[in-house]
Amino acid sequence: MRHRYSSCLDCLSELLGHGSFQVKELSLCTLMKFVELEAEHPLVEAEWKGGFTFPRELLKIVVDGLIPLNEDASLLISRFQEYMEYDDIRYFVMKAVTESIGQVMQKTKERPLPFYQQNIFSLISPINMPNKERDMVKFMVKQDNREEWKVSKLQAHKQAFEKMWLSFLKHKLPTDLYKKVLVILHDCILPYMNEPTLMIDFLTVAYGIGGAISLLALNGLFILIHQHNLHLPAYLVAAFIKRLSRLALTAPPEALLMVIPFICNLFRRHPACKVLVHRPNGPEDLSEDPYIMEEKEPSESRALESSLWELQSLQNHYHPDVAQAAAILNQSLSEIEDDISGLLELSAYELFDREVKKTTTDVPLEFEPVRGLFGKKNDIFAEHFTLE
Questions:
Q1: What is the mean pLDDT of the chain?
Q2: Domain that holds residue 328
Q3: CA gap 247, 240 in Å, rounded
Q4: pLDDT score at 135
Q5: 117 and 177 in contact (C-beta within 8 Å)?
Q6: Are residues 34 and 122 in the same domain?
Q7: CA 373, 374, 376: angle at the middle one, nearest 5?
Q8: How far apart are CA 314 and CA 323, in angstroms?
Q9: Helical H segments across 134-199, by residue range
Q10: Is residue 336 part of a domain?
């Protein structure tokens, strides 16, 4: 019977690659039913002390069938997503995907596999990770003493999630996949990683690709710097500050009101870059600035030799709020970072509307009242004509 059951599983796994989607779907559902039954009636002894069992090998057969190398399996993967709502299924799927990536990509010698990598992305990108351990209550495998089961721990899920994404992103991706990953990075990946700063290698590679991908990578770098205190070399942060400051010269006021506090926060996190502010003999304008704006390699841009004359110029900006924001660099910065969350979506309309609604008070235009037509003390006109 064990031999017949094994043969049945082999046939069903082959049918996951059948030409008919209905056959694939029926095979998938049958295999997942076997996963549930094997959990209730295990064929092997307990994997952990306490009698905890899970048919990992059978689930790996299912996962391998969902991520073929030479065809798009997104439709079948979408059918499988309902099983990913189970916390234990999701955990062991993440482990199986990590194992598969290591085996497959090693054989291809880092050569991109568009279908395979797209299938993996389709499988792992919709993963809905729990926020708290008490939210993990839905398990396909019922365990009597769940508190001692590793799969019931949120920390174990985060570790599996992080390892899976890092193994996926350390290999070269097709260009369109870089965009898809970067779009969901800040919402669906970074918040659930134990160490988000491990994504720096992926973001660095993505930034070097150029075009829209570089812009999307900057968003991820911004989050790592702002929220996770990313430890970057001083020359890299200085190059980022200088480029941002140079672009600020032509930016609209609503953008500057966010950019200037952001730059101040960078100085708070990276004190070594304060030399850009406290350099009395630094360049005063573009002609004297040693910074090379066109240099693609930050270490060779000579940013640390420069100064922030750009923000000093903004102290004379036509908009008073921008000039006031830029003037903060003349003072010593406090240790508390500025909260820029309320400025990220500030629009030109909101800025204009805020100015219109300001209430003005009467201010004196002269310090001495006018006494006559010419304003002199002994003016003959002042003796005969007065202004009421």
A1: 83
A2: 232-346
A3: 11
A4: 78
A5: yes
A6: yes
A7: 120
A8: 6
A9: 154-169, 175-184
A10: yes
